[in-house]
Amino acid sequence: MSKRPGVCLVVSGPGLIHALGGMANANMNCWPLIVIGGSSERNQETMGAFQEFPQVEACRLYSKFSARPASIEHIPSVIEKAVRSSIYGRPGACYVDIPADLVILQENVNSIKYKECCMPSPVSMAETPAVCMAASVIRNAKRPLLIIGKGAAYSRAEDSLRKLVEQCNLPFLPTPMGKGVVPDNHPNCVGAARSRALQFADVIVLFGARLNWILHFGLPPRYQADVKFIQIDICAEELGNNVRPSVTLLGDINAVSKQLLEQFDKTPWQYPIDSKWWETLREKMRTNEAASKELASKRSLPMNYYTVFSHVQEQLPRDCFIVSEGANTMDIGRTVLQNYLPRHRLDAGTFGTMGVGLGFAIAAALVAKDRSPGQRVICVEGDSAFGFSGMEVETICRYNLPIIVLVVNNNGIYQGVDADTWGKMSNLQEAATIVPPMCLLPNSHYEQVMTAFGGKGYFVQTPEELQNSLKQALEDTSKPCLINIMIEPQSTRKAQDFHWLTRSNM
Ligand code: ADP
Ligand code: MG
């Protein structure tokens, strides 16, 4: 969000180990983070010191730089290197270890030489011949597709990418956190025909998106076997992962997008609006949108996911941050909830980490407070996802942050059961073997976690209750709020065309 590293301070041993999940999450997402850990005294090392643990070694797998300053004089240069490493090249996590004996050491501050902060990260551009080649491959495409990833969001490529999309009339698909770089309601966004677009495109340009599980590795059957990939990334080692690209453009997304634009300025070109490809995509979008609308209009109770999200979408302020985690909650929510601004969606990400939602919402709220007061954060949580860090509601209330938490509650992990079924299962002998382990207690009143700390809480079961509570929550800016939304415990996503789409997180 800020292009600057977040900093996390932890105590030694278990404190540092608890931070490893977050470090891994940041590193996998290519986000800058600096973790500073206290550690046991060096002269007690190997003796079984309090919370002793090989921390520098442990962090190596979760970071791009992990070090312990040799002395107090070395701290400034190690910190400078950590900051620089976190933002230069592919951003990532860094670890600095400060042993207890350095913490307690008495030193004359004048003897420490402070280091100036590093310069902003240098901007790299692609080689001109490769840019020309890429432009020519795009011009000759029969079924082109741009994929906009979170690298594009990070590099602030929104203006240049929007220009490229509009000037060349190209269809684009955002990845989950690439949403909003070009707005979801842009006429060239083909998010609602995602599978179709991936499956039949003959030229795909990747703007800061890896061909990992999120993009099905770039392989058939999700793609044509002979699809031409044009990869744009700041990390050379990423180029060629899983596929053999037709063109590779090593450089900053924003800079390279401008280089591509120059080519299309020199020799203007537009992908024909009346092409068969646009027609196919539009037709598929229409049928997919109609299918979601139909599910959303179902009046049966408890509500299904689509009903819930369509009511939420109706009321969401355009400039809000959307934070989301959970399985179906996150996957279905992503398809219905729209992003209009770049860097306004945060979710479980590349690593699929649960437990990040409330922390991300708090971070987003703090950024919003600085930049544009009044901006809201909507944190859309599955009930099981909420359980991972639900107690952060206390932090939200302590700082009185403008956050609305929506818990989409299906009584379980993936799916749960209703109270009657639960009762029958629990009454049977050997209940432990009969109540499925993914079932959570039915009808849990998560809104009371919010009221416990002075925030507002709502328990809603009908579309009207949902509409009213969300309206009130958006109007009343004085307090954080949690709306606990009961849905059909067996509700799932709409039927998919292909069996490989039914797995969660696809
Ligand atoms: P998504 O989840 O949106 O598909 P990924 O995390 O897989 O995105 O990919 C983001 C890619 O963007 C990474 O390969 C990373 O190296 C790259 N990246 C990050 N910042 C920049 C930048 N400023 N310019 C170019 N590429 C970048
Ligand atoms: Mg659930």
Automatic annotation (TrEMBL):
Q: What is its EC number?
A: 4.1.2.63
Q: Does the keyword Signal apply?
A: no
* Single GO molecular function: lyase activity
Q: Would I find Metal-binding among this entry's keywords?
A: yes
Catalysed reactions, semicolon-separated: an (R)-2-hydroxy-long-chain-fatty acyl-CoA = a long-chain fatty aldehyde + formyl-CoA; 2-hydroxyoctadecanoyl-CoA = heptadecanal + formyl-CoA; a 2-hydroxy-3-methyl fatty acyl-CoA = a 2-methyl-branched fatty aldehyde + formyl-CoA
Q: What are the protein's UniProt keywords? A: Lyase, Magnesium, Metal-binding, Thiamine pyrophosphate
Cofactors = thiamine diphosphate
List residues of the Thiamine pyrophosphate enzyme central domain: 134-260
Q: Name one Pfam family in it.
A: TPP_enzyme_C
* Source organism, top-level taxon: Eukaryota
Question: Locate the Thiamine pyrophosphate enzyme TPP-binding domain: which residues?
Answer: 329-485
Q: Which residues form the Thiamine pyrophosphate enzyme N-terminal TPP-binding domain?
A: 1-56
According to its UniProt record, this protein's enzyme class is: lyase
* Family, as annotated: Belongs to the TPP enzyme family.
Q: Which PANTHER family match?
A: 2-HYDROXYACYL-COA LYASE, 2-HYDROXYACYL-COA LYASE 1
Q: What is this protein called?
A: 2-hydroxyacyl-CoA lyase
